[in-house]
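Bit of a strange request maybe. I'm writing a small parser for structure token strings and I need a real example to test against, not something I typed by hand. Could someone generate the tokens for this chain?
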Amino acid sequence: MSIETTAIWGLSIVLGLFIFLFIFRIILTWYPQVDLNSFPVTLATWPTEPLLIPTRKLIPPMGGVDITPIIWVGITSLLREILIGQQGLLRMLF
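Reply from user aminoacidic:
Good idea to test on real output. This should exercise your parser:
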């Protein structure tokens, strides 16, 4: 396997994992009583919170609902498609 294929494969996994974690964060917004510092939940909050904090400053919760994970699912999906999709930049480059 070439280094290019490995890089595309690795980036695909990382971006897919972030999409999954942001979807998990969307589900967590339905349960505000959940402690975000408890063990299984912290696996989703630790990598996503650094991206959500500055986004919350730009887009505050609307009616008590935090929509920033939804925005990041869209951003991450778009980035994944642009970079490694069927006609992605990295696929065309390599």
